[in-house]
Amino acid sequence: MTNDSEQTGRAPETAHESVGVVFVGCGYAADFYGATMPNYPHVEVRGAFDLVRERAATFTGEYGGRVFDGFDEVLDDPGCAVVVNLTPVSEHYRVTRAALLAGKHVYSEKPLASTYEEAAELVELARERGLLLSSAPSTVFSRSAQTLLRAVGDGLIGTPRLVHASLDMGALAFMPYTQWRSRRGVPWPYRDEVANGCVMEHAGYQLSWLVAMLGPVVRMAAHTSLQLGGEWPEGSEPAPDVSLGFLEFASGAVCRLSIGWVAPADLSLMVVGDRGVLSVGDVWQASAPVSLRRHVRTSGKTNAYLGEPEQLPFVAPPARHRYTDTHDLTVGAGVADLAAAALRGEQPFLSADLCLHVLDVSLRLSEGRGAMEDVTLPAPLDLKPAIASALTGTAAP
Predict the structure, then answer these.
(1) Kind and range of the H or E element at 329?
(2) DSSP character string of 177-241
(3) What percent of the chain has a predicted confidence (pLDDT) above 90?
(4) Helices 116-128 and 92-101, interaxial angle, to 10°?
(5) Considering the entire predicted model, what is its pTM?
(6) Which of these, 33, 76, 84, 230, has the minimum number of CB atoms within 10 Å of its CB?
(7) Is the pLDDT of residue 5 over 70?
(8) What are the structural domains of the chain?
(9) 3-state DSSP call for residue 320?
């Protein structure tokens, strides 16, 4: 799933075609997007709007386009085909709904909406109007993710049976988070992040890889806890900072998932098959090595059965334009995926149904639903064509 620019492999068939996009919301995360947009020649950044005009001005000054004076001006712009919704989570539903009603495709920062009901309404609205809707995270387009998906699809470890996945960020409350700034000097919105909680902020980074690799979640159990609530500034309303989940996928594989802001940093993913083991040390690094350990024959009284680790060659080239930070995320790839799908008249890899499913599982994890229960899949959720596209580098039929 590759092209000459970056990881998506979903570039338009006509090289000179482009799609106009406008960024709505120019806060901390906007720099992650703006810096990577030059990787995608089929994406035209027409400009940005923010309630704080200065933020839109610094964004366009750095990444191109013009400042829009109002949201209605964005919606009235005939050259804007895609609205990239980077507003606070509480505004995701309202902004996305307005954009869809105005005939715009929408790519949203995570999550699609604050509730499943609101997100499902947006998915249905997009479907009714023949529009595309997608959301972050898009790290499934990273070199690491694509290499891992290819290795699983090629059967290098046989049939996947068990996954250990973590996105423990460390004890966030003890970090100098009030000093964190984006490239343009925008502070990290820690109050919003803490109120959203570790699950809604971070679970999708692992879940999108897992669903693409193993199919939809069909059963799950979860538990959440707030352990460091007293460490945040007065007036903060922290959500649970620890989440432990057990997931069962349509493929039959199961996963132990740990998300949190308490344990030391661990952003690893290990896939155990009946013929070997694949592992990625840090899913937030686009070029984190993918390691393979194959089953080997042994004799005598030993519990060793895996060979020495071998690093797999990446199946995608490195990105030319990156956002240099503590983590190297392929956030722009999701926008490019949706833009290319709009040109081709097909669904993006991160389709609305896939994103809705990831949100559903995230909400269940966040709520700590303790009993095993069937997960209601949004219909239709047929990931096979999209997964095949990711593994072969061809467009889904």
Answers:
(1) none
(2) GGG-B-TT-PBP-HHHHHHHHHHHHHHHHHHHHHHHHH--EEEEEEEEE-SSGGGSPTT--PPPS
(3) 79
(4) 10
(5) 0.91
(6) 230
(7) no
(8) 19-135 (3.40.50.720), 145-328+351-392 (3.30.360.10)
(9) coil
